[in-house]
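Researcher: Sequence recovery benchmark, item below. Answer with residues only.
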């Protein structure tokens, strides 16, 4: 048996006025999802436990089968794994954004799309200054993926610093930033570093040039998402599965690495609407020839939700259906029996342009054990089935254990 997990990020939604009260998933033409639903099982599951913020980090951990309350320590250490950084037990990893501050406001969490090349120069130069001043107490690591995402690792940090409340910069765009700097007494050093970065980066030649070209300067760091290294049991240990993950998103790659799954590189994967959907499916099928389990994550559905464009979200869902699922169905033919589990990590609502904690719809299908499900896969049909998995992280156990389909 081969196992395929498909995560259209943020696909779940609430009824949209401009769609005549339908959700984007209901409005989309999805013959392949509908086929799996009609011959499988659908239901709802709660990926975001009470008290957690509905982010991709928490939602995806549940989808992968890890209880966030037990295993989630922060976004920083998950991303550190992607950069090949081995954290010691006392190492506290922060996500370090390069941001644009303008007067008293946080203007842009991505520093006006600063290029990776510029960003790496800025972070490396800032790290040299910090090493001179603080000698190994903290190190800054330039990112490899996008220009604004980097890492800061605090050596032998106390647990007090791990508990300091930090705010994700994408949540406070256009707001006065001082209000959102960490206030705890244990955060003095964090604030000192952020002030130092403002002073250093705003005078940096690269930023002077950006301003001359009419671009926003990457004039501050912003530290958040900290955590000590998590300790996941691997997929091999838990489920006896050997698998891999296809995604453009570092966070998902980090979860994969901690779960003992391989990161499968597919050319043309962008995390955006122009991603190589067919390539994802082809690489997944090829990977399954010698392995048991594959994950395909698609980010475009979430992006469309954040843009707030219902038609774009429908298009992204239809692309997943036609190009990913259609290709999978065609190519899995003749490769033996397989199971599909498909669900989003959370809702990304077109109306509010943000995530919500609603229970998400899932579908489970087995080519070896066909069932009779609803004709259409949607939030509504999933709710109507009355199958509810209250703890999202249990769904994977049920799926692999064979109690769903
Ligand atoms: Zn997400």
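Model:
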């Amino acid at each position: 048996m081969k196992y395929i997990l498909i995560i259209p990020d943020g696909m779940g939604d609430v009824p949209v006025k401009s769609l005549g009260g339908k959700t984007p998933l209901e409005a989309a033409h999805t013959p392949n999802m509908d086929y799996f639903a009609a011959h499988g099982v659908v239901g709802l599951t709660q990926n975001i436990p009470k008290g957690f913020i509905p982010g991709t980090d928490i939602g995806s951990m549940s989808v992968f089968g890890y209880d966030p309350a037990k295993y989630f320590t922060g976004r920083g250490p998950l991303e550190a794994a992607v950069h090949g950084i081995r954290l010691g037990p006392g190492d506290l990893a922060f996500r370090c954004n390069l941001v644009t501050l303008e007067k008293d406001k946080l203007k842009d969490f991505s520093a006006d799309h600063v290029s990776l090349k510029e960003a790496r120069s800025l972070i490396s130069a800032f790290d040299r200054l910090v090493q001179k001043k603080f000698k190994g107490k903290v190190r800054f690591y330039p990112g490899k993926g996008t220009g604004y995402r980097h890492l800061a690792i605090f050596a032998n940090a106390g647990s007090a610093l791990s508990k300091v409340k930090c705010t994700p910069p994408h949540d406070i765009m256009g707001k006065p930033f001082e209000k959102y700097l960490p206030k705890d007494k244990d955060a003095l050093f964090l604030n000192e570093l952020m002030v130092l970065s403002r002073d250093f980066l705003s005078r940096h030649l690269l930023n002077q040039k950006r301003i001359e070209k009419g671009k926003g300067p990457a004039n501050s760091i912003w530290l958040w998402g900290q955590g000590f290294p998590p300790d996941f049991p691997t997929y091999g240990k838990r489920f006896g599965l050997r698998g891999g993950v296809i995604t453009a998103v570092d966070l998902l790659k980090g979860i994969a690495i901690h779960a003992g799954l391989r990161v499968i590189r597919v050319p043309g994967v962008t995390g955006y609407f122009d991603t190589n959907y067919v390539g994802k499916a082809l690489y997944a099928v090829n990977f399954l020839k010698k392995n048991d389990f594959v994950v395909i994550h698609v980010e475009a559905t979430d992006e469309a939700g954040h843009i707030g464009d219902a038609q774009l979200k429908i298009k992204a869902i239809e692309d997943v259906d036609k190009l990913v699922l259609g290709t999978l169905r065609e190519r899995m033919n003749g490769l033996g029996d397989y199971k599909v589990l498909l669900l989003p990590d959370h809702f990304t609502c077109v109306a509010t342009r943000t995530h919500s904690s609603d229970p998400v719809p899932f579908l489970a299908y087995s080519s070896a054990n066909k069932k009779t499900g609803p004709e259409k896969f949607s939030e509504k049909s999933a709710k109507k089935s009355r199958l509810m998995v209250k703890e999202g992280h249990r769904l994977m156990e049920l799926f692999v254990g064979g109690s769903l389909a």
